[in-house]
């Protein structure tokens, strides 16, 4: 469904498949998968669709870089700048995979010379689905404008999803 919706704004398969892959990763995470497991399952799902190759290659590169050890800004730059969908997805996934703390993942995902708000948003969606807002530093949460409204909406959404 996410890939179909993204077709309204992304005419190229890589753009809408990246959106679909992120939605699949988030869905798998909410069912208890690890970030790596969710990414691998999303890759299997992508493989069923013609034109998936660029998105799949970017995700595989993120998995390979994460397996190669400690995070570095240079490794982030190898994934691209995030100005196109598959690069932004790869950077967000890489940051979520390679770090051990939520704060480190978020900082890694935004501290590069590219489209850092997109890559940070993708990483934040992944980490939020995996760990919830309880994993964020309290001093970060205190600064979020409209936090009470956001929390209420998130709780309502979670409750609605549990009914399914």
UniProtKB/TrEMBL annotation:
Sorted UniProt keywords = Hydrolase
Instruction: Please state the span of the N-terminal signal peptide per the UniProt entry.
Output: none
Query: InterPro entries recorded for this chain?
Result: ADP-ribosylglycohydrolase, Ribosyl_crysJ1, Ribosyl_crysJ1_sf
* Family in the record: Belongs to the ADP-ribosylglycohydrolase family.
Please give the name of this protein. Answer: ADP-ribosylglycohydrolase
């Amino acid at each position: 469904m996410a890939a179909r919706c993204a077709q309204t704004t992304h005419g190229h398969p890589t753009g809408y498949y990246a959106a679909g892959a992120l939605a699949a990763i988030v869905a798998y995470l909410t069912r208890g998968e690890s970030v790596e497991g969710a990414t691998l399952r999303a890759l299997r799902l992508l493989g069923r669709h013609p034109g998936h190759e660029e998105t799949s290659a970017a995700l595989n590169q993120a998995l390979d870089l994460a397996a190669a050890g400690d995070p570095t800004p240079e490794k982030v730059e190898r994934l691209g700048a995030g100005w196109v969908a598959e690069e932004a997805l790869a950077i967000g996934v890489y940051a979520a995979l390679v770090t051990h703390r939520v704060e480190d993942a978020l900082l890694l995902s935004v501290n590069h010379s590219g489209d850092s708000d997109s890559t940070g948003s993708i990483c934040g969606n992944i980490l939020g689905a995996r760990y919830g807002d309880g994993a964020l530093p309290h001093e970060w949460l205190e600064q979020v404008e409209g936090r009470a409204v956001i929390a209420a909406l998130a709780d309502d959404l979670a409750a609605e999803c549990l009914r399914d």
